[in-house]
């Protein structure tokens, strides 16, 4: 029996994708080889690779001004890789802190230069606020402004993306990439680890505007230097071929679902159902301001936290898994990525109501 | 029909491993989740992860003085990650050049400090020689000596590993790790990308002596700083979970084969059969000195290179794939890693003899 998996990542994948991957494991399209076994330079994998890039470009409507790269190291890797690639001439950047992940990004950037905090969404209740552009205090001529557009741990999503003129905006979109259409032209760089909405852990998508490819520090490792990666079509070093294949299967699944506009409608429905359930009750609480509530990661707390273990045990007994909140904030968290079906959220809210009725 | 796959990497995997992975794709051991979907912090994946580490330690007889890390970025990533981790106090190292890969390692290290060439195996015929210790001209007090113990492109393997006393030896063993027992105590660091003998592309195994964990440069990215990775049991950032799972299945397959002593005997038999066929003929030639011939990667040339395309087309028609040599050296190359069965080599030499009989 398949469970309903609310993991924050690595996370649920579409069953269709997993079935196809299993079917093709020993023999991809009559090649006599599994995808894991293919040379990354051979025609079979080159086809997989280029289809994945084309499908992603189409899904996200990536403009011709931007390149799509496949790297390794995930979001935490990018925390260093971004300054290594953009601090070549101006070793300073501004950070908008909306939660735990942007905090980490700012701290790591300090290794490579100045990392000015332009705004913070921390309140007495924790990270509950996404500062609007009017609250950002930018420094003089930064190399870029960094923003984590969806904070996985804190459940804070930023929906309004300002125009910064000549200052490149760099977005960590790891946990909501592909959840809705985004205007890529607004970003200098947008990146995301795969293990939420893209596929399996082990590949990082980096979308970078071409004029930013020439700003690396001299000691940026070649395998992580965007310019080198771009010049080699993401094959400067052996790419994580199977992770790219799985991502490609997810992209095709997304296209069958109707693309990002259709998936956004489903994501809104799922998130609304869950937030409505929380808001209708005094038994559960979510502290994030409404305009910044994440559609992907929904943290919530039981008013009576002594019941946390009971809640989790009862959920597990029904096949509702991975609902424990991140250790740094406690409580519960339901991650409801693209591949989590509406039925999972329906089963969760039904359980929440029953648990409340029993214990309120 | 499965082909015989002589790819240099990503490369053939054991059928048993692929079958098990396919069987478990949607539901690992009754968990209701596939391995790709599991939180890396959950008990299911923690078990997979710790078993992989234990099995690898047992297979390679890794002493307690050394830690085993799982990183990302492959061998080319390590070309930067090694100096970033070892140049903290002494930004200089020595390189023994045995082929194309050690050349790349030396060049990348120049970004971070001095990279002295202590010896080279290049001859008029290309890289055909592995310099003995007596030929190494070490500099004064280097941070380490780097050696690529098996050169995938040139087919040069180093079997005699000298004792360097207090100078740490750093080995890129990407393309022959797990092919035979190695005395890990002789190495300060031994690393390898997974896509030859370990599993699928996307995870790098780094075995590092504990006293070397404290020598990183200040600007080493946290996700690639061995000390940080070690302190977090290779989970500082989200690890490439599925690649670790596949590696773990390969480790268990290797144990069922009888471990590294048994696999070495099979690898000797396979390599001997192929080299004997080459040496018995004037139609085929391998230029590497006999004591340094790789058991994993066997480059060979047709005396009449105008027949190269014919040779490859005929091989393909028999299901003998990926025999084209690396573009930098030309000719042919048969990579005969652990998962390539003796039957594949038998089929290859049979074809080589027939091709020779027809065209000689």
TrEMBL record, chains A, B:
Cofactor-binding details, from the entry: Binds 1 pyridoxal phosphate per subunit.
Listed name of the protein: Phosphoserine aminotransferase
UniProt record similarity statement: Belongs to the class-V pyridoxal-phosphate-dependent aminotransferase family. SerC subfamily.
Protein function: Catalyzes the reversible conversion of 3-phosphohydroxypyruvate to phosphoserine and of 3-hydroxy-2-oxo-4-phosphonooxybutanoate to phosphohydroxythreonine.
Assembly information from the UniProt record: Homodimer.
GO biological process: L-serine biosynthetic process; pyridoxine biosynthetic process
Transmembrane segments: none
UniProt xrefs under Gene3D superfamilies: Aspartate Aminotransferase, domain 1, Type I PLP-dependent aspartate aminotransferase-like (Major domain)
Pfam families: Aminotran_5
Enzyme Commission number(s) of this protein: 2.6.1.52
Residue list for modification N6-(pyridoxal phosphate)lysine: 196
Domain of life of the native organism: Bacteria
PANTHER family per record: PHOSPHOSERINE AMINOTRANSFERASE
Record CDD domains: PSAT_like (cd00611)
């Amino acid at each position: 029996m398949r469970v309903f998996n609310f993991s924050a990542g690595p996370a649920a994948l579409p069953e269709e994708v997993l079935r196809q991957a299993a079917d093709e494991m020993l023999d991809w399209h009559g090649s006599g080889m599994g995808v894991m076994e293919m040379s990354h330079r051979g025609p079979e994998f080159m086809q997989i690779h280029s289809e994945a890039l084309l499908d992603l470009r189409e899904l996200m409507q990536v403009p011709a001004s931007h390149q799509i790269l496949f790297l390794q190291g995930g979001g935490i890797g990018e925390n260093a890789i971004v300054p290594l690639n953009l601090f070549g001439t101006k070793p300073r950047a501004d950070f908008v802190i909306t939660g735990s992940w942007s905090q980490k990004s700012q701290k790591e950037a300090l290794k490579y230069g100045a990392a000015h905090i332009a705004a913070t969404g921390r309140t007495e209740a924790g990270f509950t606020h996404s500062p609007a552009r009017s609250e950002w205090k930018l420094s003089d001529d930064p190399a870029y402004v960094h923003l984590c557009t969806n904070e996985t741990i804190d459940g804070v999503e930023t929906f309004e993306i300002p125009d910064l003129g000549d200052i490149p905006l760099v977005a960590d979109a790891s946990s909501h990439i592909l959840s809705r259409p985004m205007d890529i032209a607004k970003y200098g760089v947008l990146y995301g680890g795969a293990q939420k909405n893209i596929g399996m852990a082990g590949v990082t998508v980096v979308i970078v505007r071409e004029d930013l490819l020439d700003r690396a520090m001299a000691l940026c490792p070649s395998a992580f230097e965007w310019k080198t990666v771009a010049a080699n079509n993401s094959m400067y070093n052996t790419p994580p071929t199977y992770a790219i294949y799985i991502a490609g299967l997810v992209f095709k699944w997304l296209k069958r679902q109707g693309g990002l506009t259709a998936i956004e409608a489903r994501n809104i429905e799922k998130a609304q159902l869950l937030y409505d359930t929380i808001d209708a009750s005094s038994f559960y609480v979510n502290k994030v301001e409404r305009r910044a509530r994440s559609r992907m990661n929904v943290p919530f707390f039981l008013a009576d936290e002594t019941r946390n273990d009971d809640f989790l045990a009862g959920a597990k007994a029904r096949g509702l898994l991975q609902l424990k909140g991140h250790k740094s904030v406690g409580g519960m968290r339901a991650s409801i990525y693209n591949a989590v079906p509406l039925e999972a959220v329906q089963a969760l809210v039904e359980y929440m109501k029953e648990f409340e009725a029993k214990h309120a």
